[in-house]
Amino acid sequence: SENIFTDLLLSFSFRKNTRHILADGSADTLYCLNGVRVLSIAWIVLGNVYGILYQDPELVDNHVSAVKMTQTWWMQLVINTTLAADSFFVLSGTLGAYNFLKFKTKAGKNEEKDLRKVMSLKEYFFMIVHRLVRIFPCYAVLLMLGTNLMPYLGRGPRWSSDIENVKVCKRNWWSNVLFISNFYDPDNMCLPHTYYLSNDFQFFLLSPLILIPLLINPKLGFTVIGFFLALQIMVVCGLNQGINGNVLKLRQNNYWSLIYVKPYSRIGVYCIGLGLGYFLFVCDRQMKFRK
């Protein structure tokens, strides 16, 4: 118990954590993905800063200039910022597949053909627990800030309207905790941007349906990936036929609640990441790219 207490205290050590963050990492680290993360985050920040030009035009003083700006070629980067979130789903799937296949290969289970031996229910349970331990503490702090402390963190003429989501959080915070906020009353979601975590966790729960076939029979695994890709395309196209929605008007025609935040609109992208993770695993990261 003393060692556990010591390790717990050391987990808050500035020196230890700084050294860990700046370390080169293990031989299995996919360094290129860090660059993808940085570029994707920069893209999202750019879109959220300038997205006001077409999402809330009443807040812009010069409407004529705003309209002209949205018609420039570089503004297309802003208008299509919603695609940046998909890059994180690809990254999540890539790392999930790559790490899973690496672990199974090292464990010597890659030769198993029995699904129950490849992954037991106990192993699946501990995978979920490990995932929750990694993401839930920070997520819980964020929910606490959004539910209780946000009203005290700013002020101004628009602050009262900007923190309207606090009331929603007090009512629907539990759906975030259960990672079902994208299904339960999505139009009144606590911290709407956290729809990503709900989707990502739901994909994580479903990932063994693809990872296990990829391990024991890659052709079957890629067939399942193709199925989910086709499913996403057909479902999204079918639903959008009835509402004629688009990302420029997220909150209109139920596009947000019916399509944008739902897992069936993102599962194909996540599956692409799983396929990429398998590809990197098979190639053992031996591909060389010109600088």
UniProtKB/TrEMBL annotation:
Membrane-spanning ranges:
29-53, 73-103, 124-145, 201-217, 224-243, 263-283
Q: Which UniProt keywords apply?
A: Membrane, Transmembrane, Transmembrane helix
Keyword Repressor (UniProt) = no
Q: Which GO terms describe its molecular function?
A: acyltransferase activity, transferring groups other than amino-acyl groups
Which ranges carry the Acyltransferase domain? 31-281
Question: What InterPro entries is this protein classified in?
Answer: Acyl_transf_3_dom, O2_lipid_transport_reg
Q: Is Membrane set as a keyword in this record?
A: yes
Q: What protein name does the entry list?
A: Acyltransferase 3 domain-containing protein
Give the organism the record lists. Answer: Lymnaea stagnalis (Great pond snail)
